[in-house]
Amino acid sequence: MKKTVFGIFTIALLSLSTFLHAQQKDQVILTVAGETITRSEFLNVYQKNNVNGEVIDRKSLEEYMELYINFRLKVKEAESLGLDTVTAFKDELAGYRKQLAQPYLIDEEMNRSLLKEAYDRKKVDIRASHILLRVDRNSSPADTLAAYKRIMNLRKRVLKGDDFGKVAEESSEDLSARDRTAEGRTFKGNKGDLGYFTVFDMVYPFETGAYNTPVGEVSMPVRSDFGYHLIKVTDRKPALGRVQVAHILLRVAPDANAADSAAVEKKATEIYERAIAGEEFARLAEQYSDDKSTSTKGGVLPWFGSNKMIPEFIKEISALENLNEITKPFVSSFGWHIVKLIDRKEIGSYEDNVNELKQSLTRNDRAKKSEEALVKRIRKEYKFSENLKARDEFYKVVTDTVFAAAWDVKQAAKLNKTLFTIGRRSFSQQDFANYIASTQRKRNPEDIKQFVNGTYNIFVNESLLAFEDSQLESKHPEFKSLVKEYRDGILLFELTDQKIWSKAVKDTTGLQEFYASNKTNYMWDQRVDATIYTINSSDKKLISGVRSSLSKGISDNELLEQINNDSTTILTTERRKFSKGDNALVDSIGWQKGLSQDIVEDGKIIIININEIVAPEPKKLDEARGLITADYQNYLEQLWIRELRAKYPFNVNQEVLSSIR
C-alpha cells in the first residue's frame, strides 16, 4: 500500500551527482499555507518521477504541478492534525533516516580500497595452519606482553626446525589442534591445519596475516580478538569458487591393518576404472558408497566453497578442469574418495561481486578500518581537541564496581571540566560519567586505567560519528531533501489510510450508497445461464440416455443419481452464468437455448445446455467489490482534495513555472 502512495512521489536514493542544488536566489514557484517551494525543489521532484525520461513540456509540468499541490496540501493537513508528533511516526522516520545516512558515514576512499582488496583475495584460496595463544582484548599490558613473548618463543622453535604441526599439537590453545573427547566421541586433532579458506572466512587480522605470508613461511604474531596467532601458509591456489560434486566414499575401519587398507584402496581403484570406462557414476555411488546420506542421491553433495570441505577434497577438485571429470581415488582421514565434478560457478568480475562484497564488508570486522578513517577525517574537519588530564581524573573515581554494572555516577559528581570539543560543541566530564554509567555491564575485571582509556576512546568515536550525523542535513542538501521526502511520504500514507483506504473498507453504508448511485457503471455484458454436462464414458447408449433425459426436463440431481453410483462418478455437472471469454466450449457453440451437439474432449463427452440468454444487467456489489471499492476510494479522495483546496491557500507563480524548459 505504501508503494501506491509513493507511486507519484517516488522515494529513491539517487546518485549525488544528479541532485540539483538549490541556488542562493532560487525563485519560489509555489506557496502552500505559508510554506514556500522553490523552483529547484519542484524540478528535482518532477525529474525523479519523470520515469520515462520524457522531454519537459508545458502540459506535463502543469499536470504534475496539480498533483504536487494535492500532495503538499495533504502533508499540510497531516501536520495540522499533529501526525508528525506521534511517537510511531518519529520512530519510523528515524529508522529510515538511519538507513539513508549510512552512505554518508563511511570513508569512501577506504571503502573502495577494502572492496578491491576483498575481491583480489576472493580470487585466491589459501591453506594455512596456526598456533593460538589466547589473550582477551581487555587483558592488561603485562598479560598481553607475556603472551607475546610466549608466542615468539614458539615461533623461534619452528624457525629452528621444529615441526609446526607438532608445536601446534603441544602448545596451541585452539582445542582442535589435538585429539579430544566430547560427548563420548573422540575427535582427531588437526595439528593446527585449518584447511582452505578465502576472503571473509576468517577474522580480518588473521585473514590479512595469511594473505601476506608467502607459502611455506611462518608469520610474525598476528593479534585478533582471540589472542595471538602464528600462521604457516601451506598452499595458495586460484579460487575454487562454488562447486557441486558427486562422490563415492569407501571408509577404512579405525582398527584396519595394512592389508585391510590396501584392500579398500584396491576396491576404490576398481570402482574408479569402471566409472571412467562409462558406467553411470550415480549407480556406482548408490551401490558402493559408504556415505549413506548421499548414496541414494547418486552421491551428489550440496553446493560448497573451499572452506566447507576437508583440504584433501578441495585440492583434488581444484585440479579438475572439465565438468563431469572424475578424480583418481585419494585418501583422507575419512577413507578413500572418488569425486565427479558436476557443475562450477566461477568467481566472476569485480562488477559481478561488488554488491555481495559490500554487504559482507558491513558485517565484517574490517569495517572498523573504514570507521577509523572516517573518525580521523571528522577529527580534522571539526578541529577536535581534548584534555587528557581531565580523562585521567576518572582513574580515581571509577571503581571495580563498574565490572558488576554497579558503579554510581555520583562518584564523579565533582568532575566538571571539559573533556573534548568537536566544532563548537563541548563534552564534559559529566557527559563521560553518564556514558560510563549507561554502558556498564557485568564483565571480567581489568585494570581500571585500561578500562577508562578504552571506554573513553569508544565514547569519543561515538560522539564524533554522532556529531557528523547531526550535520548531514546542513552539509548535504540532497540528503536533507531525501529525508524530507521520506517524512512527507510517511505522513501522506498515514493520513490517506485514515481518510481513504480504511474508511472505504469500514464505511459499508457509504460504499452501499456509492454503489447504488453508480451501479450502471458496473454492468455485465450479455451472458448465458448454461449447464455443462461431462460424461466420462464413450458408451453411445449411455450418452443417448443422458440426452433423452435432458430433453424430458429431468433435474440435474435426479440425473446424477440415475447415472452415477456409490463407487463410480460417470457424470458431473456445472451450472452458472458465463460471459464471453469465460469458457471456450461455451463460446464455441453459439448462444441459443437448448442442448448442444456432443463435444469430444480428452476422451470425454460434453453436452452444454443453454438454459437462458441473460440480458446485460448491473453487477451486484459482491460481484465487483474490489473495483467498486477502488472507485469509492477515488471518489473520497476527490472530495477530500476539494476540501483541502478550500481550507488552505495556495498560489503557483506561473512566471517561474513557465521558465522551466
3D architecture notes:
Helix content is 47%, strand content 18%. It is flat, with a radius of gyration of 38 Å. Strands 16, 17, 18, 19 and 20 form a five-stranded antiparallel sheet that branches. It has a four-stranded antiparallel sheet with strand order 6-3-8-7, sandwiched between helices. The chain is an alpha+beta fold and 661 residues long. It has 25 helices and 22 strands. The protein has five domains: 1-80 and 476-522 and 618-661, Triger factor/SurA peptide-binding fold (Orthogonal Bundle); 124-238, Roll (Chitinase A, domain 3), CATH 3.10.50; 242-346, Chitinase A, domain 3 (Roll), CATH 3.10.50; 382-472, no CATH class; 526-615, Chitinase A, domain 3 (Roll). A hairpin with a 2-residue loop joins β10 (330-332) and β11.
